């Protein structure tokens, strides 16, 4: 059984220019994931981490205590390394420049959704941590600026997630395929359990909050009806599975084949998911695993962000399923 640490060192040759730094960053994320695993798994036992934090994030959404805790765990773990110059998070209104000698001289920035799906935490349903890493474009030696965080997703040098489910797994890519590691709490170690993950080219599972059906664009409505049609020879109707945690739905679709959709709707005219720290990292992983990720028309990784917390419609998973919904959307143009 190969540990995550051994795997990262073994693969350093694949990113020679980021040799030690990327390993250092992944090591910080690994540590944060272990702490979050512990805190999430005992959440029900201590009243100080369940429930609302009594404040809102920049999206105007009520923050859970565990959102705030997860954000601080990630921020501290990364600030402790020499490799990260700045940090952006769903839970932080603005970017955070690490204003230290090593922060100013570090080459990379990270964006994260520290605890995705946190509304599920109080009811013991899977949640996740999502991260996205870029090389800074501002000069080394200076403080990072917002432009370092507004790069198109195709510039990512690494991305991944931790899914806190029936087991805790860390799944990441550095642009050379996707690998999954399962956490063994008794040893405090992540072990390679899903090497070279690939998304089946087609699938029979669709993930969408069908409660929003009436407000979806016509093309998306037509695709959902396509999924539900009785065509046994084509394996339809498909199965509907929606956990309410992007990371958990994405992870299942990656292993089994499927599509995750969060379309634009009147309550979310630009979709609900955030481009920079939800859509982009998941799109990088999806493409690296042979899948596809679009906003219904454009490749997610080609979108040039304008705002740190901007949202995007999101269609991601098995290539043929994403292409199918795009064809329905195109027909309605
Ligand atoms: P809804 C969690 O807040 C999240 O960002 C994703 O993890 C999840 O798929 C989606 O929103 C759930 O949103 O509107 O269906 O509850």
What does this structure look like?
This protein is α+β, with helices and mostly antiparallel strands and 333 residues long. The chain has 2 domains: 4-194, Fructose-1,6-Bisphosphatase, Chain A, domain 1 (2-Layer Sandwich); 205-331, D-Maltodextrin-Binding Protein, domain 2, CATH 3.40.190. It has helices at 4-10, 19-41, 65-79, 101-105, 218-228, 246-256, 275-288, 319-331, and strands spanning 52-56, 62-64, 84-89, 96-97, 108-116, 127-135, 158-164, 168-173, 178-184, 189-194, 205-207, 239-240, 259-262, 292-294, 314-317. The strands form 3 sheets. Strands 4-3-5-6-7-8-9-10 form an 8-stranded mixed sheet, with helices on both faces. A hairpin with a 4-residue loop joins strand 8 and strand 9. Helix 2 (19-41) packs antiparallel against helix 3. The longest helix is centred in the first third of the chain and has 23 residues, at 19-41. The radius of gyration is 19 Å and the shape is globular. The site of 6-O-phosphono-alpha-D-fructofuranose (P6P) has 9 residues, from loops.
Helices and strands, in order, run as HHEEHEEHEEEEEEEHEHEHEEH
Query: What CATH first level of the largest domain would be assigned?
Result: Alpha Beta
**Largest sheet, order of strands side by side?**
4-3-5-6-7-8-9-10
Binned, the helix content reads 25-40%
Tally the beta strands.
15
CATH fold label of the largest domain:
Fructose-1,6-Bisphosphatase, Chain A, domain 1
């Amino acid at each position: 059984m190969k540990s995550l640490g051994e795997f990262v060192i073994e693969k350093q040759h694949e990113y020679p220019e980021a040799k030690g730094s990327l390993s250092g960053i992944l090591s910080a994320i690994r540590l944060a994931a272990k702490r979050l695993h512990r805190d999430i798994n005992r959440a029900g036992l201590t009243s100080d981490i369940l429930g609302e934090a009594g404040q809102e994030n920049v999206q105007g959404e009520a923050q859970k205590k565990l959102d705030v805790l997860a954000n601080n765990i990630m921020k501290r773990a990364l600030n402790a390394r020499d490799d990260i110059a700045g940090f952006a998070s769903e839970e932080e209104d603005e970017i955070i420049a690490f204003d230290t000698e090593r922060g100013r001289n570090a080459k990379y920035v990270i964006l994260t959704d520290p605890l995705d799906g946190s509304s599920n935490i109080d009811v013991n349903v899977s949640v996740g941590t999502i991260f996205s890493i870029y090389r800074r474009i501002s000069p080394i030696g200076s403080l990072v600026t917002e432009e370092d965080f507004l790069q198109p997703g195709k510039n990512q040098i690494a991305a991944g997630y931790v899914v806190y489910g029936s087991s805790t797994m860390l799944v990441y890519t550095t642009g050379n395929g996707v690998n999954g590691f399962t956490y063994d709490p008794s040893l405090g170690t992540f072990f390679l359990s899903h090497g070279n993950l690939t998304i089946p080219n087609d699938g029979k599972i669709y993930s969408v909050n069908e409660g929003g059906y009436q407000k979806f664009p016509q093309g998306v409505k037509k695709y959902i009806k396509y999924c539900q049609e009785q065509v046994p020879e084509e394996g339809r109707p498909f199965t509907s599975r929606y956990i309410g945690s992007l990371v958990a739905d994405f992870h299942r679709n990656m292993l089994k084949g499927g599509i995750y959709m969060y379309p634009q709707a009147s309550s979310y005219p630009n979709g609900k998911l955030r481009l920079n720290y939800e859509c982009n990292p998941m799109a990088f992983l999806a493409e690296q695993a042979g899948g596809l990720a679009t906003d219904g028309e454009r490749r997610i990784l080609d979108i040039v962000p304008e705002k740190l917390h901007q949202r995007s419609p999101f269609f991601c998973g098995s290539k043929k399923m994403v292409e199918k919904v795009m064809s329905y959307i195109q027909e309605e143009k």
